[in-house]
Structure prediction request, 116 residues.
Amino acid sequence: MQPKLKKFAFFTTTIFVFIAIVVLVTGIAFFGVKVYQNYQTITQINAQRQQIQGKINFWQSIADKYEGFKDAYFQMAMLDYSLGNFKKAKLENKKALILDPNFNDAKKLEIVLDNK
Prediction:
């Protein structure tokens, strides 16, 4: 191979390798940022779920202490609905309606839950 051709091949290969490394490093950086953003989102969602579960526990303690308190069951139904626990929300809302069949908010929630 001629010296000029060797230099050209070396130069071309070097540029190609450099471009490949830059593309890979850039891709890894973007992937890392996306993973970090997803981690932050998951952490935030888990914190919100724990907060809601704490509120459910509070209302459960109220329902245990004051039997017949329809609002406690309704609040638990709303909170479970927000967590996507539709079956549990239906049961709690049904308890509220048993205690007060004319409970308008519980009637409205029953309609929403029947569509889930």
Observations:
- The mean pLDDT is 94.
- The longest helix spans residues 3-65.
- The chain has one domain: 3-114.
- The domain at 3-114 is CATH 1.25.40.10 (Serine Threonine Protein Phosphatase 5, Tetratricopeptide repeat).
